[in-house]
Automatic annotation (TrEMBL):
<dbReference type="InterPro" id="IPR011044">
    <property type="entry name" value="Quino_amine_DH_bsu"/>
</dbReference>
<protein>
    <recommendedName>
        <fullName>SMP-30/Gluconolactonase/LRE-like region domain-containing protein</fullName>
    </recommendedName>
</protein>
<feature type="signal peptide">
    <location>
        <begin position="1"/>
        <end position="15"/>
    </location>
</feature>
<dbReference type="InterPro" id="IPR015943">
    <property type="entry name" value="WD40/YVTN_repeat-like_dom_sf"/>
</dbReference>
<keyword id="KW-0732">Signal</keyword>
<dbReference type="InterPro" id="IPR051200">
    <property type="entry name" value="Host-pathogen_enzymatic-act"/>
</dbReference>
Amino acid sequence: MKLFSILILLTFTGAQWLYHPKPSAIVPWKPHNATSVGNSGIYKNQYYLADRSDAAVQVINITSTKHVVTIRGFRGLVPHPRNTSYAKETAKSNLEQSGPNGIAILPDKSELYVGDGDGTVRVISLVNNSIVANISTGARRRTSAVAYCEGAGIIFVTDPNIEENRPQGFFIDPLERQVAGQVTFNSVNTNTLIRGHHVTSSLSQIAFKPGTDRFYVSSRSTYVNPGGEIIEVDPFTMSISNILGLDNCYPLDVVFCPNGNLFVGCSSVQELSSPLVNGSTGYSLIIEPSKHWSIVGNVSGVSGVYQAAYSSGLGAYFAAAYRERTVKITSGNSSNDTTPHEIWRSAPQLAIINSTTHQVQQWIETDNRTGRTVAVDPATQKLVVPLRRGITIYQLQSNATEYWKKSVAARTVLDSYVGVLPLVFAIAAFFL
C-alpha cells in the first residue's frame, strides 16, 4: 500500500502549473471584438498576429516583449451589410470579406503568407517586415486558412465561399508566386441546421504532416458527414486523397505532433446536437491517420477550439477553447412552466493537453473576445495569446519540464499498477 500511496503522491505532485497563472508580460493592444483576430505564429522570437481591427499583421518580439512593427495593407474588418450590433460594442463584421485571416511561415524563404478578405494572398518579407507581393486566387471572398508543404514546394489556401456554397482550395507556387491549381470541396455544407440553429460551416483550418507531405483540412459539416470531416489533400496531384467522417465533432482547428497523431479541436456546435445535462461540456479528438484513421484519444471538456498549437519541447497540445461553454438545465421559469430551459455559460479557456496521456494538464482562463488563437515557441517555451487586455505572454516555469516528465512517468506506472490492485488489496486483507 505504501507503493500505491507513493504513486498517487507522485501523480498529483506532477500536476503542477506548467505556466504561471499570471502572465509574464502584456503588450498593449486594443482589439474590437471576437472577430478582430485571425491566426498567429512564432518564428525566430517574433510573434505574428493577423489583426483585423487594424487591417494589419502585428509583430511582437517575445524576448524583449516589445512591439516591433505594424504591417499594414489588408482589408480589415468590413462592416456587415445589415450592420447589426455585435456584443453592443461595434457593428457586426462581414468575415467573408475581412482580413487578414490565416498565416503560414516559410522558414526556408523567410516569408509569411497571409490570407486577405478579397481572395488575395499577401506575401510578407520577414527580413524587412513589409508586403513584397500580392497573389490573386481569383476568389471573390476571403482566403482563409494557409499552410505550407516545403517538400512539394506548395502553399495551400482555402476559400470557404459560404455565401455561394462553393468552398474551394488553391495551390500556390511560392517561386512563381501564382496559383498552380485548385480543388473544389463539393460535399461541404456551408449552412447546417442543428436543433433549430443555423450554423455556418464550411472549411476551417489546415494542418500539414511532414513525412507524408499531405495537407489535412477540417470541415465542420458536409452532406455526407454532418458531424464534420477531416479531408486529406495531396499537393502533388492537387486533389483530395482521403476523407475521414466524424461523429458530432464539427471540427475547427487541427494540428500534428511528431508521432503522427492529429489533434482535432471540435467546436462548441457539438453541444447543440448532444443530449444536454447540467454542467455538460464538449470534447476534442486525437486521431492516428497512419492506422486507418483510428481515434486514439478523447479529450474530455475541450471544445469551442478555434486554433491549436503543439510544442515538441513539452510534448503538449495547446487549444484555444475560446467558445467553450457549459450548460445548466432548469425545470422552468415558474410553477406553471415545467418546460426545460437551457442556460448557457461562457467559459473561455486555454487547454494544455498532454500528448501522451491525452489528458488536460492545465487550464488557463482567457476570454471570448479575442482569445481564439494561440502560438507557442518550443525554443523559449513561451506561450502567446491575444486577449482583451493585450497580447499576453506566459513563461514556462524553470522546473515545469521535470514536473511534466514526472507526471507522465507516474501516470504510466500507475496505469499498469491499477490492474493488480485487487490482488494487492486481497493480500493485504489476508495479513491484516
